[in-house]
Amino acid sequence: MRERRRRRSFITLALILIVVLGSSLYLVLPQGFNLWGRLHKGLDLVGGVHIVFQAYPTEKTPVTEDAMKSALAILTKRVDALGLTEPVIQQEGRDRIVLDLPGVTNPEEVAQTIGRTAVLEFREPGTSPGQPGPVFLTGADLVKATPVYDPQQGWLVQLQFNDAGAKAMRDFTSTHIGQQMLIYLDGELLQAPVVRDTIPNGVGVITGYASFDDANAIAVALNSGALPLDLRIIENRQVSASLGADSMAASEKAVILASALVILFMMVWYRIPGFWADIALIVYIMLLFLALYGLGATLTLPAITGMVLSVGMAVDGNIVIFERIREELRLGRSLRNAVDQGFKHGVRVVIDSSVTTVLAASMLFIFGTGPVKGFAITLSLGVLISLFTAVTFTRWVLRLQVDTGARPSFWFFAPPGYQGPAGEVTR
Questions:
Q1: Fold held by 48-239
Q2: For residues 74 and 425, which has the higher predicted lDDT (pLDDT)?
Q3: SS3 letters across the chain
Q4: Which carries the bigger pLDDT value, residue 421 or residue 55?
Q5: Pick from 287, 105, 123: which is nearest to 189 by CA?
């Protein structure tokens, strides 16, 4: 019975090694899942554009929390419509909005498209030259704006209005044939076409665009709706791709070097238990990266700093528990009992330490800005995942190791001066 148990434990440990090492290689290698390559990278890693908008009140809308949320939602729609990948859009303070747009190389065009107020107005001609008349139709009645190519007119924006807008357009055009219809966008006169006939179906066009990009920029702004506030650019900065590449390379080296040093230390200081702690660390790193990938988190330099820090913290729990096991052996307990008691008492310390770290990280997340929040998220995730790897996974493999017939020795937990059952003394 005992021999069968030992054999089963050996086979289980071998399978654990094969699964963990095989899975880690598959997840990391470019020929496999390429988990690192699939993670979203922030502006400081791949380059792009950093834009800061300052919000000012309009005649109708003061700067309030609701107005800022509305502006944030509209900007998000515009960024998504432009197909920009992995953007970071967030409010900073009471009246600022920050956009980080990785991979963007034309900051001026993007900033103009995203930050356009997009107040669309159709006005009657004024009674005196140069003076517009009253507004008879606005973008509030717009259902959809679409960039369309016409062989005669080139690129244009086709406007589809709702029933109320269609009625307003029909009423105006039926009574103003031969007169101008003034089209304004953000207070600027775009066009003043002459009404040739009644427009019955609520479809209009804005012509005069040189390219699809120009027409699409207007369509994106109109489809997302008018901004409730006056957003002015106070910072528009290009982060070079070369700086991002250097940061990426440095980050990869930092993660690899930190992991290698921790693995080496654990194997030298704790031998076989240290080896299993290193396997637990590999499991921890895989789970952390999978969690970040699953959450769609964006990796930035501060986030990677939190990750590197959490790598060291991931083995702290093992160190506390291993030292507790050594203390139990000094008290004369058997190896199995020492392992059980070491985990029982050591886990309390590990949990207390983890809770305080997560609480501190939570404060950073609540009160910090984007980069600080990234640090807080990776640190918190790392601490929570390390609870599983240090407490559950490591205890499981150590119990299996004991079941293989392991005895306290220089290679397995025996503290200096420990006298084993045969009278040998470890040093």
A1: Gyrase A; domain 2 (3.30.1360)
A2: 74
A3: CHHHHHHHHHHHHHHHHHHHHHHHHHHHCCCCCCHHHHCEECHHHHCEEEEEEEEECCCCCCCCHHHHHHHHHHHHHHHHHCCCCCCEEEEECCCEEEEEEECCCCHHHHHHHHHCCCCEEEEEECCCCCCEEEEEEEHHHEEEEEEEEECCCEEEEEEEECHHHHHHHHHHHHHCCCCECEEEECCEEEECCECCCCCCCCEEEEEEECCHHHHHHHHHHHHHCCCCCEEEEEEEEEECHHHHHHHHHHHHHHHHHHHHHHHHHHHHHHHHHHHHHHHHHHHHHHHHHHHHHHHCCEECHHHHHHHHHHHHHHHHHHHHHHHHHHHHHHCCCCHHHHHHHHHHHHHHHHHHHHHHHHHHHHHHHHHCCHHHHHHHHHHHHHHHHHHHHHHHHHHHHHHHHHHCCCCCECCEECCCCCECCCCCECC
A4: 55
A5: 123
Which stretch of 156-160, 200-204, 301-305, 333-337 has the lowest confidence by average pLDDT?
301-305
Lowest mean pLDDT among 24-33, 169-178, 267-276: 24-33
Q: Give CA–CA dist 81/19, Å, rounded.
A: 42
Q: What is the mean pLDDT of residues 265-289?
A: 91
Domain range annotation of the chain: 2-42+240-403, 48-239
pLDDT of residue 130: 65
Question: Is residue 425 predicted with pLDDT exceeding 50?
Answer: no
Query: At residue 414, does pLDDT exceed 60?
Result: yes
Q: What are phi and psi of 385, to 5 degrees?
A: -70, -35
Query: Cα torsion for 98, 99, 100, 101, to the nearest 10°?
Result: -170
Q: How many Å separate Cα 216 from the centre of its chain?
A: 27
pLDDT value of position 155: 92
Q: What is the arrangement of strands in the sheet containing 132-138, beginning at the earlier edge strand? A: 132-138, 120-125, 182-185, 188-191
**Domain 2-42+240-403, what architecture?**
Up-down Bundle (1.20)
In whole angstroms, what is the distance from residue 333 CA to residue 305 CA? 41
pTM over 0.70: no
| CA pair distance 248, 39, nearest whole angstrom | 12
Intrachain domains 2-42+240-403 and 48-239 with the same fold: no
What's the pLDDT at 149?
Answer: 93
**Residue 400: partners with Cβ closer than 8 Å, 6 or more residues away:** 9, 12, 13, 16
